[in-house]
Specification:
two-stranded parallel ribbon; alpha+beta; 6 helices; Nucleotidyltransferase, domain 5
Length: 147
C-alpha cells in the first residue's frame, strides 16, 4: 500500500467514504490528496454490503448514488448506468442542466458530509499524525467503530 501522501503544496491525504442512508460508514479508502474521486469510485462500489431484511444475500449494489460535482463526469455516469444504479449528481456549470435531477434526493448527500465532520472532530484524524497509510487507516477505522 502506498503511503497516501499527496504532493500538491504540502503532504495531504484524502478520505473516500461510502455510507448508508443513515450515516453508518461502509467502505473507507485513504489516498493521496491529489487523487481524484473518480478513480476510487469503482473500488467503493464493489465493497460494502447491506444486510437484507430477513433471509438472503446482502445487497452490494445500491439503488441510487448521491455525489457532488466531482463525480459528474460522463465516465462515472456511464459506470453507474451500466450497473443499473441511479446517479443523483448535479451537472457542472459548463454543462446543460439535467431535467431529471432530483434535488430532494441530492439533499441527502449531507449525511456523508456530516460523517466526515464527525471524523474530523478527532484531532488525530484531522491532522494526520501517522506517517504510514496503514496506521492512518487503522486510526480512522477505530474512530468509525467508536462512532
Amino acid at each position: 500500500m502506498a503511503e497516501a501522501l499527496g504532493r500538491r503544496c504540502d503532504f495531504t491525504a484524502k478520505i473516500h467514504l461510502r455510507c448508508e442512508r443513515n450515516g453508518k460508514p461502509m467502505v473507507l479508502i485513504v489516498t493521496g490528496g491529489e487523487r481524484h474521486e473518480q478513480s476510487v469510485l469503482p473500488v467503493l462500489m464493489k465493497q460494502g454490503a447491506v444486510k437484507r431484511p430477513g433471509r438472503g444475500r446482502p445487497w452490494i449494489r445500491p439503488n441510487r448514488v448521491a455525489g457532488d460535482k466531482g463525480y459528474g463526469s460522463q465516465t462515472v455516469r456511464q459506470y453507474l448506468k451500466e450497473r443499473r444504479i441511479g446517479a443523483v449528481i448535479p451537472t457542472k456549470a459548463d454543462e446543460p442542466p439535467d431535467p431529471a435531477f432530483d434535488r430532494t434526493a441530492y439533499r441527502e448527500r449531507n449525511v456523508v458530509e456530516r460523517l466526515i465532520n464527525r471524523l474530523k472532530q478527532f484531532q488525530r484524524i484531522a491532522t494526520r499524525y501517522e506517517k504510514r497509510a496503514h496506521n492512518y487507516h487503522a486510526m480512522i477505522t477505530i474512530v468509525v467503530i467508536m462512532l
